[in-house]
Amino acid sequence: MAADLPAGEATPVQRPLIMRYAARSDVGRIRAKNDDSAYVGRHLAVVADGMGGHAGGDVASAATVLDMLHLDHDDHDGDAGTILADEIQTANSLLSELVHINPKLAGMGTTVTSLLLADGKLHFAHIGDSRAYRLRDGEFAQISIDHTFVQRLIDEGRLRPEEAETHPHKNVLMRVLGDVDASPELDLDTLDVQPGERWLLCSDGLNYVAGHVVERTVRETKDLRECVETLVNLTLEAGSPDNVTVVMVEITEETPDDVSTAAVDIVPSQPVTEAPAADSEAAGSSPDPETSDVKSPAADKAPEKPAAAEPPPSTDPHLGEHLSAEVLRQELASRPHELVGAAATAAESGSIPTIAGRTVARRAATVLTHKADAPVAEVDDAALGQPKPRRWVTMSIAASVLVVLTVGLWLGYAWTQTRYYIGEYDSRVAIYNGVSQRLGPIQLSTLEAVTEIQMDSLPQFSQQRVRQTVPARDLYDAQRIVKNLEGTGTIAPPDECLTPSPAPSPTTAPAATPTAPAPSSDPAAPAATPAASPSPTTACEGGQ
After folding, report:
1. What pTM, to 2 d.p., does this model score?
2. What is the DSSP letter of 286?
């Protein structure tokens, strides 16, 4: 802000706001590789903490950060906050494609916490558990909200903040970029900004340093470089079981000396003999990713390869085809910045994870100019000499498939309406037309009739059968089953009951009532026995 001036003096023009910055990333004491990435420049600061997958954490964070670094300027065509959010969504799509073509990366993801300074405003975008703190007017506060399981418990009042650090699920993330089913839900905000305010962006590795120690360090350490070094060293002294990345930003007015201030060339600049990526793409040519990044003069005399020839599939954990290091050098050398962590490693080697099937120039144009893929695909097809499919042919095929699917579904539904079954409705036996299944939200049956048979009047076995539904061939068959339930308590007709044990023949006992024995003249003869009675007829029971 301009200082107050005596009356009568002209007010100087306010200079544009920029970021002064420092950054550092460390693998920590335990981890074998650094999955964190960060970029910071005059107008953009990004911290990403990767996780999961065979090589996934470093791939996810590096791909995301390097896909966003072209936003580091203040001349955006449109709302800068919307552009920042769209770019993060684009990075998420890139990660999804990487997982699709390389299943070894399944489960990978990354957090993103970013600031974009444009038009005198600070645009904030965040997802995951990396953090953003602000020190302004003497007040130090966390601006980001952790998208973790324990934070949700805290918000719902089911967990105290002091219990979060020891909770067994403290590292479970609820929102993240990468191999997830749903589109990422970002926290977005546009904030007023003033010269002198400071921002701290960090991965969750810094959580091993007590909050009050972090705050005191940010308040009392005036030099930004010294501040990030102190915070990382404190983390290492605490044991640092995780990677740790720290970015410090101070908002200030731009001065003429800022042309080269705080520039850190992570990737050394080399002479450029290659045509710019966008021009190469427009001409339908692409550099060969299998050759050196710097094209030699002899290459112009070599036989030309097909412009859109793709490299063979690779088992390289970084997916084989990469954005050329030369294109990346041009982008990074165009302005002061710091690039640290996995993104810096990828930039030094030129191993930028990208999509198989995209040429180097095509990917370069996507990253650096954010062009749509469709026009590039047309250029590639033309360069190969392949005819473009006519639009009406594609539409005809799609329409035919849609008609076949519609007819098939209709015929299937019509068949279900020829079926019937017995089920339960309002604790009574009922007849249904259709089948007892659903097709998504569509119920494939309707209630045909409700009988007076109460469910609790049936034997237990019959109740279970009805609740599980009893299929019938047609309406007549369904009515027969209901009649059997009403008469015998079972779904089987009477002639299907078990046959009782045979009774003695009527010739053995001609009379139903036994007769008194006649006197015998032989005193030794035994007393006459009454004739055996036939067994009563056994009725069908519900259990049979």
Report:
1. 0.56
2. -
